[in-house]
Amino acid sequence: MSLESSQPPASAHASAPAREVLVWDLPTRLFHWLLAASFLGAYVISEGERWRAIHAMLGYTAAGLIAFRLLWGVVGTRYARFTGFAWAPRAVGEYLRSLLTATPRHYVGHNPAGSWAIIALLAGVAATAATGWAVFNDVGPGWMEDAHEVLANATIALVAFHVAAVVVSSLLHRENLARAMVTGVKRARDAVPAAGNRWPVGIALVGALVAFWVGWIPAPGLAPGIAASSLTSPNAAIAKHPGRESRRERDRHEADERSDHR
Ligand code: HEM
């Protein structure tokens, strides 16, 4: 664990003036907001067949973003690296206890409780995407669809908790954490800034996602370019992929047909 990244700077240099410090590099910020958009987007349109192709594309996008973040957690800048997270269980306890005092401990990077919450979020999104892939491609046992739904709901609950924690933490520390995730910058005393914004990596990340959405990178179970065509005509994707109905929808259709025959 890097002390510079995770220790409260104020305790060591209380007299140093606060200044603006780059904390979240561009790839980390892009990852965050694209993950939030793709996961929430996929969740909102998950019911029904109409947006099935877009739902799958958003799920694959979230999975790709997680894969990128795991890599970036090793080779990214100071506060993005997993070694810079405050993991120690003792630190979690101390941090949570300090929240009950008038001077809660301040971390420039992720705080100890946040570090664990982030891993839970990454795991929840990854497991939801993996089971979604299996359902969409008819791989694995029938309970996979239920598992996908349970995991998606559990992850949404985690997201709600995450957003609430961001609000509470912002109020306690009197700093706007959501804005810092947009600008990358926080005000801190004597904190070591991240090495840079890593623009080329951010541009490459967006480029890879654009290539995926226009069909240059294939999506499992979907014809190339199907996302673009199903945005204008959502049912086209299902017409070309009649096998992509969910089990629940198939059951419903079969029940409808049975009642029609009666
Ligand atoms: C829409 C409302 C959201 C807001 C305002 C928000 C805000 C934030 C903020 C401020 C942080 C940095 C926390 C810190 O300072 O330690 C963060 C981190 C994170 N958030 Fe969110 N978040 C939102 C939605 C989501 C969603 C929907 C997901 C996942 C599905 C998500 C996943 C994450 C992850 C994985 C991190 C760690 C970032 C990293 O180190 O790469 N967030 N979020």
Overview of the structural elements:
There is one protein chain. The longest helix is centred in the middle third of the chain and has 30 residues, at 144-173. The protein has 262 residues and is mainly alpha-helical. The chain has a two-stranded antiparallel sheet with strand order 1-2. The chain has a single domain, classed as Fumarate Reductase Cytochrome B subunit (Up-down Bundle), CATH 1.20.950. The N and C termini lie far apart (68 Å). Helix 4 (52-75) crosses helix 6 (112-136) and helix 10 crosses helix 11. Helix content is 64%, strand content 4%. The model is unreliable at 1-13 (pLDDT under 50). It binds protoporphyrin IX containing FE. The site of protoporphyrin IX containing FE has 22 residues, from helix 3, helix 6, helix 7 and helix 8.
List the topology elements.
Elements: H1 3-6, H2 9-12, E1 18-22, H3 26-44, H4 52-75, H5 89-98, H6 112-136, H7 144-173, H8 177-183, E2 185-189, H9 199-214, H10 226-232, H11 234-240, H12 247-261
Antiparallel strand pairs: 1-2
Helix pairs in contact: 3-4, 3-9, 4-6, 6-7, 10-11
The chain binds protoporphyrin IX containing FE.
The site of protoporphyrin IX containing FE has 22 residues, from helix 3, helix 6, helix 7 and helix 8.
CATH topology type: Fumarate Reductase Cytochrome B subunit
Number of domains: 1
Are there runs of 5+ residues with pLDDT below 50, and where? 1-13
Q: N- to C-terminal separation?
A: 68 Å
Based on helices, strands and strand pairing, what is the structural class?
mainly alpha
Q: Which value, in Å, is the CA radius of gyration? A: 22 Å
Under the CATH scheme, the architecture is Up-down Bundle
User: Which strands sit side by side, in order, in the main sheet?
Assistant: 1-2
* Highest-level CATH class: Mainly Alpha
Q: What hetero molecules are in the model?
A: protoporphyrin IX containing FE
Q: Give the helix proportion (percent range).
A: 55-70%
Mean pLDDT: 86
- The fraction of residues assigned to DSSP E strands is under 5%
Q: Strand-and-helix sequence, N→C?
A: HHEHHHHHHEHHHH
Per DSSP, the total helix count is 12
Largest sheet entry: 2 strands, antiparallel
